[in-house]
Amino acid sequence: MSTVFTKIINGEIPGRFVYRDNEVVAFLTIEPVAPGHTLIVPVEEVDRWTDAAPELWSHMNEVALMVGNAVVEAFNAPRAGYLIAGFEVPHAHIHVFPAHDMSGYNLANVDRNPSAESLDEAASKLRAAIGTDEHGELVR
């Protein structure tokens, strides 16, 4: 059975993509700890990050670095937060978010009801910083 992330990747459920290639996607979470909170997810369904092939894990981290630089730029954050949890969805993913303090590292602090407008605005800012279109594909 497909994970919710696979359904987002396949377009069965809407997602706000900020990056996409054949192996890895990045899209905004619907429950952010801060505006711009992005998930870096392999296209392949891999349950635990420790199960990912080394090449895939390396590529996920390259994308996380790119997104991290974009969240710092787009949201004027002093740091980019990076977190791996993985209990809520059995599909490996990295959380990257603008970090102004340590509160973002506690996923109990998520906004459970962000407005669609705030999510759309955050996605637009990140796409502009990364150089991608509304599908997450590079345009530069």
Structural class: alpha+beta
The coarse silhouette is globular
Helix content: 25-40%
Question: Strand content of the residues, in percent?
Answer: 15-25%
Mean pLDDT: 97
User: Separation of termini?
Assistant: 36 Å
Number of helices: 3
Largest sheet: 5 strands, antiparallel
Number of strands: 5
Strand order of the largest sheet: 1-2-3-5-4
What is the name of the CATH architecture? 2-Layer Sandwich
- Which blocks of ≥5 consecutive residues have pLDDT under 50? none
Total count of domains: 1
Order of helices and strands: HEEEHEEH
Alpha-carbon Rg, integer: 14 Å
| The CATH H-level homologous superfamily | HIT-like
CATH class wording = Alpha Beta
What fold name goes in the CATH topology slot? HIT family, subunit A
